[in-house]
Structures are given as structure tokens and as C-alpha cells.
Write a structure and sequence with these properties.
The complex is a heterodimer of chains A (278) and B (178). Chain A is mainly alpha-helical and 278 residues long. Chain A has one domain. Helices cover 74% and strands 5% of the residues of chain A. Chain A is built from 9 helices and 4 strands. In chain A, the strands form 2 sheets. In chain A, strands 1-2 form a two-stranded antiparallel ribbon. In chain A, strands 3-4 form a two-stranded antiparallel ribbon. In chain A, a hairpin with a 2-residue loop joins strand 1 and strand 2. In chain A, helix 2 crosses helix 3, helix 2 crosses helix 4 and helix 5 runs antiparallel to helix 6. The longest helix of chain A has 43 residues. The radius of gyration of chain A is 22 Å and the shape is globular. Chain A starts with a helix and ends with a helix. Chain B is rod-shaped, with a radius of gyration of 66 Å. Helix content of chain B is 92%, strand content 0%. By secondary structure, chain B is mainly alpha-helical. Classes of the chains: A mainly alpha (278), B mainly alpha (178). Chains A and B meet through helix 1, strand 2, helix 2, helix 3 and helix 4 of A and helix 1 and helix 3 of B.
Chain lengths: 278, 178
């Protein structure tokens, strides 16, 4: 029975290469990523056109409501409205792209389409290349705005300080450097882990429940849809929080820290506290 | 179950950690570029109209809020003006009543004074008239007395005395008797 079970489950942490183009391996997750991106662009082009024409229906209203809510989140986390406006497209794309990619993993029969015995479609959010690439894009964007806000030297001083003049600050900078690296690793691995685990969960549940899968699996799928939304939201929020923290002036931060320590304000109201709690 | 785990371990553990997790630098760059293109396309064609719609709605909400606030301020100002006008009118009414009362009192006092003066004048006139009448009566009585005495004296003496002498004597007699 165990052997039969082993044959039924075919799990790969790495995406499978379907074919190569100009030396680039085209994987099943990349292909799904392209499909989900086209789907995302199509859906939002439709919404955008309808909004521009002033024609609203329930779906357009829902999409615009979601868009407005996310945009509001960006404005509330980044106080500088100009900067928020610049970061918003990236953050919003991350949210919707992650959401679409994650939800693609919940599509029934996604892995049943095969080419030479390999699943043609696989959620791109379950590909560490994609999540790492997005995390790197976020990292570069955050560093770009940090350099613009503090200058090259000012930005470097966030991590490297003279240990002879300011030993505690130097240690803090070292911790900040480690934190900076770990943040983005966590950002990519969290999304990959959740989506990959979700896929495995659905496969295992479908195998274990056999014919009952038609009844039981929808509950797990609904749960995965919810997890997908949460993960996309976390990725989106962390992107804007990292940006907000990077451009935050040190003076303002110290002042805030003092206020927090005196007032014992709730830590979850501060972006830094939100990151630490992550 | 152990077979499953062994199969999984043998499949994924054949290379280093990166390759077992599927990290491929070329694919990573390709995914990154694809994502940047997606951001660009959405930012270029999709987000601007949606952001404009959000901005327009926000502007409309702000304008409505501003208008409501302005109307509220105007209403409050009008209320204040009404209150001030009412207060002023009440004050004016109070002043008018006060002035009317003062004028009425003054008129009453004046009328009283006038009446008093007139009555006093009437009394005085009456007194004067009375005095005049008394004097006239006295004079008349005096003359009548003189005439009577002259007549009596004439009848007693039997002859008429000349008028001037007669009158002189009678007057002296009356004076002595008075």
C-alpha cells in the first residue's frame, strides 16, 4: 500500500524544465507565471477600461474596492505621499501578482496537464526563483529610495559605524545589516514555503481522501485561497514597511523610539515593531 | 511511508541545497526581468486610470466635506448673527421701553407740576378775586354806610350839609368808629 501511495505522490521542490530557449530553461512555474501575468493584465485592463468609461458592474466595483483599499494601506504606512505614490505601483503589483500566482496553485487539475510526463503548469509562487527575484526587486527598490533619502554615505551609516566612536551604534548597525539580509530571505522563503506546502497539502489530502476528495478538498481549497490572500498581503505590507523604514530619518526614529519607551505605546502601531513581530 | 521519504530525499538531495530548492541564477534573473516588465506594464497602462479614479473620488469627498464644513460654518455664523440681531433687538426694545417709561414719568411729573401750578394759580386767582370782591364789597359797604349815615344825619340835623363837608365829617366818623 505504501508503494502504491509513493507512486501516487510526485513532489518536486524545484520547478521542472519543459524546454530550453536560447540557453534559458523554461520551467513549468515560469510558464504558469506568464499565464497568471497575462490573466492579471487582462483582468486589470478590463477593469481600468471600464473605470475610464465610467461603467461599473459588481466585478469592477470589487476590483476597484480592492485596489483602493491597498492604495490606502500604502498611503497610511508611508507618510510621504510623493514617495507612497512612487512605491504604490510596485507594492500593488506584488500584491495582485502574488495573489493571482498563489490562487493558480489552488486551481483543480493544474498539475494534471503534462508534457513528457512533467506537469506543464505549476504555481509560480511555489518557485523559489520567482519569490527570490521579487524579493531582490523589493530590496533594490528599498535601497534606491534609502540612498535618495539619506545619500550614499548616510545609507551606509545605517549599517556601518565607527566602533571606536560608537560601539553600541556599530553593533546596532551590524545587527541591522544581518536584519536587512534576513528580511529579504524570509520574504522570499515565506511565500515559497506557504505556497509549496499548500500544494503538497492539497495533493496529500486528495490522495488520502480518494473518492471523498470531491467533498473534502473544496474546504482545503477555500483555506488555501485565504492563505494566499494573507501571504500576498504580508508580502505587500512588508514591501511598503521596509520602504518606510529605509527612508525614515534617524532623528525621527530616535524620537519615536523615545516616545514609545516613555508612553508604552502599542508596538504594533509602528512599522519597525511590525517587522520585528514578523 | 519510509519509501516515500527516501524517494523524496533521493530526488531532491542529489545536488546542493540551491539546486534542490530549484534556485537557478539564469531563471532567477529571467523571473526578475519578467516581474519588472509586469510592474512596468501595469504602471503604464492599468494603474493610472484606477489611481485617477481614486484621486477624483477622494477630491470629490474632500470637496463635499469642505462644502459641508463651509455650510456648517455659514449656518453657525448665521445663527450667531441671528442671536446677535435678536439680542440687539431685545436691547433696543428694552431701551425703547425704558425711554418710554422715562418720558412717561417725565410727562407725568411735568403734568403734575403744571396741574399743581395751574391749580395754585387758580387758587391764587380765586383768592385775589375774593380779596378784590371783599375790598369792593367793603368799599361798596363803606360808601353805602356813608350814604346812609349822611342820610340819617340829614334827617336828624334837618339840613343838608354841603357834599364835601358832609363826606369829610362822615369819613372821620366812620374812621373813628372803625
Amino acid at each position: 500500500m505504501l508503494n502504491q501511495f509513493a507512486i501516487s505522490i510526485d513532489i518536486h521542490a524545484a520547478p521542472l524544465t519543459l524546454f530550453t530557449v536560447g540557453g534559458f530553461s523554461i520551467t513549468n512555474s515560469f510558464l504558469t507565471g506568464i499565464v497568471s501575468s497575462i490573466l492579471l493584465i487582462t483582468v486589470f485592463m478590463y477593469v481600468s477600461r471600464m473605470v475610464r468609461a465610467g461603467r461599473y458592474n459588481r466585478f469592477v466595483g470589487l476590483a476597484q474596492w480592492a485596489f483602493e483599499g491597498m492604495l490606502g494601506q500604502v498611503y497610511s504606512v508611508i507618510p510621504d505621499k510623493k514617495l507612497a505614490r512612487k512605491v504604490a505601483p510596485l507594492a500593488l503589483t506584488i500584491f495582485f501578482a502574488m495573489l493571482f500566482s498563489y490562487w493558480m496553485s489552488v486551481l483543480p487539475g493544474l498539475e494534471s496537464v503534462t508534457y513528457e510526463g512533467k506537469a506543464v503548469l505549476r504555481s509560480v509562487a511555489a518557485d523559489l526563483n520567482f519569490t527570490t527575484a521579487v524579493a531582490l526587486v523589493v530590496f533594490m527598490t528599498v535601497q534606491f529610495y534609502a540612498v535618495r533619502a539619506h545619500g550614499n554615505i548616510g545609507n551606509l551609516k545605517r549599517y556601518i559605524r565607527n566602533p571606536l566612536k560608537d560601539p553600541i551604534g556599530s553593533f546596532e548597525g551590524f545587527l541591522e545589516l544581518i536584519g536587512e539580509v534576513s528580511r529579504y530571505i524570509a520574504l522570499s522563503v515565506r511565500m515559497f514555503g506557504n505556497c509549496f506546502a499548500g500544494e503538497i497539502l492539497l495533493i496529500i489530502v486528495s490522495v488520502l481522501t480518494s473518492y471523498l476528495a470531491a467533498v473534502i478538498l473544496p474546504f482545503f481549497m477555500a483555506f488555501e485561497l485565504f492563505i494566499g490572500f494573507i501571504q500576498a498581503y504580508v508580502f505587500f505590507m512588508l514591501t511598503i514597511i521596509f520602504t518606510s523604514l529605509a527612508v525614515e530619518s534617524h532623528g525621527a526614529h530616535d524620537e519615536d523610539a523615545n516616545i514609545t519607551s516613555v508612553d508604552h505605546s502599542p508596538s504594533d502601531t509602528h512599522p519597525r515593531a511590525a517587522v520585528q513581530s514578523e | 511511508m519510509s519509501n516515500v521519504l527516501q524517494q523524496f530525499a533521493s530526488t531532491e538531495g542529489s545536488g546542493d541545497v540551491m539546486s534542490s530548492l530549484g534556485i537557478d541564477w539564469k531563471m532567477l534573473v529571467l523571473q526578475g526581468v519578467a516581474f519588472v516588465i509586469l510592474v512596468y506594464l501595469l504602471n503604464k497602462f492599468v494603474f493610472p486610470p484606477l489611481m485617477k479614479a481614486v484621486d477624483d473620488r477622494q477630491a470629490a469627498i474632500e470637496a463635499s466635506t469642505e462644502a459641508a464644513k463651509e455650510a456648517e460654518e455659514k449656518a453657525a455664523a448665521a445663527q450667531d448673527e441671528i442671536k446677535a440681531a435678536l439680542k440687539e433687538a431685545q436691547q433696543e426694545a428694552r431701551d425703547i421701553v425704558e425711554t418710554a417709561k422715562d418720558e412717561a414719568n417725565a410727562k407725568i411729573v411735568d403734568a403734575e407740576e403744571k396741574a399743581k401750578a395751574r391749580s395754585e394759580k387758580i387758587v391764587k386767582d380765586a383768592h385775589d378775586q375774593l380779596e378784590k370782591d371783599v375790598i369792593a364789597a367793603r368799599k361798596s359797604l363803606h360808601n353805602d354806610t356813608i350814604d346812609l349815615v349822611a342820610l340819617a344825619t340829614e334827617k336828624v340835623v334837618g339840613k343838608a350839609v354841603s357834599g364835601d363837608v358832609d363826606k369829610k365829617i362822615i369819613a372821620e366818623a366812620v374812621k373813628e368808629n372803625a
